[in-house]
């Protein structure tokens, strides 16, 4: 007797299959692919589009996006909010719809966050070649524009026959659900194959649970790690995004309370401890706090937990200056664990911290060390207070005063989203995270335009939670269009739009590195041809209103506070628009960041910047 089959198109089979996939961790089961974002064109409308229609909203919820890149951002926001235990798919047409995915895919993969990409592709039959939007490679005939997704995907296949979907779909789910491998996963779907019928084995559509394992530490590595911690006098934990992905916050808290070891965090790891925990030192590195960076300079053991050690964290290799410093890296991937020539503990963050704590039994840092970092933390709290405080309620707020007003508005579980501009640095130094999911900084790719679509994904993942997308004017202009989606879906996301007429961040960086702020302000051309004229008469608040948001314009600190409270109380998508005072109220950088400066130049600013640069480079260490 032959096994039962079901006759469906490839696209219908894929949608049915995706709707039956689940993850499970700690006894909790979730849909692996909870919904599908889509924009239709000839590359997917009759295949995946028809299949989604036939499946219906109950089987596979569908969300309409405005731009393929921002659909990926929304999916990434969703997956991050749910600690990678649930993800979304994104279907696109072929050609421009597909290549618009590349930036989003890179962002997902670099941040180690799952998203399933389903771009349409050329006809597997090659019958109508070249079809509209098809790349004709004169030598490699099987290459399509979708091949641009290969380097930014953790798994890639082109499904050139219906039955080829079966092994690839299973591999795709494995990668999405695997904490050590996850990122963007691409199944490119030739247009003709999407619509082709096949007799699928019924078993392909059975419910399948992808168990998200908590890999335990290896006993030999554990013994060595315990020894390293016992013999350290000035240990410092660097908490990265892995703490959140693993939901290891409580284990980390128990570990630091037992050992007294303080925690500094990366952008992805901030909020691993509550900001007012005595062992929480705030951000580390170029955008870190004075207390974190001072401890990093003098630490004899740096314990990285779930961190990739980007240049911002290591101050481009200049931060860890103790000649005796050693590293111990607890990470789910061997790739990250081995960075900085570390001792490794390749395991899940939560299970690793729990096992370390058991094995350490009673070891604690000295009282002097604890008193030292507590005093440093208290000093930094005053820096935050000063940056937040607005003396005059009727004055135009500075950017850090905007953060102060938001700090006074949010509750413990509000989510604050940001990715690029001068805000990430200010937030890393100043934000007081009150809960693990509150601080949502995308700083692996630092992609302008992530914030608004990500807010939609976060809101889908956390209904009822106030969500704030913080955007500069440059970032807003990069990608405001997903506002329409928030309006369409009735999602009450909030945007705080800070107008400072251009790229304050890159302007400042340009100034420091000899570029004299060239090309970073949004201003009219002056008589000399440079962009140094009056600010542009662009009304971004009116733009947000035109896309369907409620808009509140705040001109003073008082108006801002009222507007933020009103936005939080509203059940409509609301934009709080504020022009900021450029007065520098943000604390300066406590550590360097390597941006190479012209080695030869005729302008004095660059010559001086290069002298400063050479002094900084000299401080770089290679940890071997
Ligand atoms: C997509 C993208 N393009 C370029 C950059 C480089 N970049 C980083 S910050 C920035 C300017 C951001 O301007 P705005 O949002 O107004 O924030 P501000 O710097 O004024 O705080 C640019 C161009 C980037 N991070 N992402
Ligand atoms: Mg700006």
Automatic annotation (TrEMBL):
Domain Thiamine pyrophosphate enzyme TPP-binding per the UniProt entry, residue ranges: 420-577
Record keyword Electron transport present: no
Domain Thiamine pyrophosphate enzyme N-terminal TPP-binding, first and last residues per copy: 57-128
Keyword entries, A-Z: Thiamine pyrophosphate
Cited Pfam families: TPP_enzyme_C, TPP_enzyme_M, TPP_enzyme_N
Organism lineage: Bacteria, Bacillati, Actinomycetota, Actinomycetes, Kitasatosporales
UniProt-listed InterPro entries: DHS-like_NAD/FAD-binding_dom, Myo_inos_IolD, THDP-binding, Thiamin_PyroP_enz_cen_dom, Thiamin_PyroP_enz_TPP-bd_dom, TPP_enz, TPP_enzyme_TPP-bd
Protein name: 3D-(3,5/4)-trihydroxycyclohexane-1,2-dione acylhydrolase (Decyclizing)
Residue intervals of the Thiamine pyrophosphate enzyme central domain: 223-356
Family: Belongs to the TPP enzyme family.
């Amino acid at each position: 007797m032959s096994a039962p089959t079901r006759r469906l198109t490839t696209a219908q089979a894929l949608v049915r299959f995706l709707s039956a996939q689940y993850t499970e961790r700690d006894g909790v089961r979730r849909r692996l692919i909870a919904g599908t974002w889509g924009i239709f064109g000839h590359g997917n409308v009759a295949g995946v589009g028809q299949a989604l229609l036939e499946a219906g909203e109950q089987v596979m919820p569908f969300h309409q996006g405005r731009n393929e890149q921002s659909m990926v951002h929304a999916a990434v926001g969703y997956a991050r909010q749910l600690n990678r235990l649930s993800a979304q798919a994104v279907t696109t047409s072929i050609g421009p719809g597909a290549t618009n995915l590349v930036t989003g895919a890179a962002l997902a993969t670099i941040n180690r966050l799952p998203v399933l990409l389903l771009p349409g592709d050329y006809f597997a039959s090659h019958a109508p070649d070249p079809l509209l939007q098809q790349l004709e490679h004169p030598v490699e005939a099987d290459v399509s524009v979708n091949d641009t997704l290969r380097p930014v995907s953790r798994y890639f296949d082109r499904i050139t026959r219906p039955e080829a979907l079966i092994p690839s779909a299973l591999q795709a789910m494995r990668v999405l659900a695997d904490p050590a491998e996850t990122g963007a996963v691409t199944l490119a779907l030739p247009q003709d194959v999407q619509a082709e019928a096949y007799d699928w084995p019924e078993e392909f559509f059975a419910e399948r649970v992808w168990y998200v394992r908590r890999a335990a530490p290896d006993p030999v590595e554990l013994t060595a790690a315990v020894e390293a911690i016992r013999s350290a006098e000035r240990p410092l934990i660097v908490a990265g995004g892995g703490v959140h992905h693993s939901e290891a916050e409580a284990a980390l808290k128990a570990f630091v309370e037992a050992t007294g070891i303080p925690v500094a965090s990366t952008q992805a790891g901030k909020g691993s401890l509550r900001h007012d925990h005595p062992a929480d030192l705030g951000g580390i590195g170029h955008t870190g706090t004075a207390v974190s960076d001072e401890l990093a300079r003098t630490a004899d053991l740096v314990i990285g937990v779930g961190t990739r050690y980007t240049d911002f964290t290591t101050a481009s290799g200049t931060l860890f200056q103790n000649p005796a410093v050693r590293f111990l890296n607890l990470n789910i991937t061997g790739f990250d664990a081995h960075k900085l020539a570390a001792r490794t503990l390749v395991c899940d963050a939560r299970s690793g911290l729990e096992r370390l704590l058991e094995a350490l039994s009673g070891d604690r840092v000295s009282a002097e060390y604890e008193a030292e970092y507590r005093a440093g933390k208290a000093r930094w709290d005053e820096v935050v207070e000063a940056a937040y405080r607005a003396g005059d309620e009727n004055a135009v707020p500075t950017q850090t005063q905007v953060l102060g007003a938001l700090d006074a508005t949010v509750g413990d579980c509000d989510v604050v989203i940001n990715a690029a501009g001068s805000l990430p640095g200010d937030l890393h130094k100043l934000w007081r995270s009150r809960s693990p999911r509150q601080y949502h900084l995308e700083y692996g790719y630092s992609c302008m335009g992530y914030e608004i679509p990500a807010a939609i994904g976060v809101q889908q993942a956390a209904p009822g939670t106030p969500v704030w997308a913080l955007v500069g004017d440059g970032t807003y202009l990069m990608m405001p269009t997903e506002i329409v989606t928030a309006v369409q879906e009735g999602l009450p996301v909030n945007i705080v739009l800070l107008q400072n007429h251009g790229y304050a961040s890159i302007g400042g960086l340009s100034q420091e590195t000899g570029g004299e702020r060239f090309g970073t302000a949004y201003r009219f051309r002056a008589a000399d041809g440079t962009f140094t004229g009056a600010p542009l008469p662009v009304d971004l608040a009116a733009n947000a209103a035109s896309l369907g948001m409620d808009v509140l314009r705040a001109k003073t600190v008082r108006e801002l506070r009222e507007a933020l409270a009103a936005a939080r109380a509203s059940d409509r998508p609301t934009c709080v628009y504020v022009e900021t005072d450029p007065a520098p109220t943000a604390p300066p950088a406590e550590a360097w960041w390597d941006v190479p400066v012209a080695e030869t130049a005729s302008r004095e600013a660059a010559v001086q910047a290069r002298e400063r640069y050479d002094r900084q480079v000299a401080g770089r260490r290679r940890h071997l």
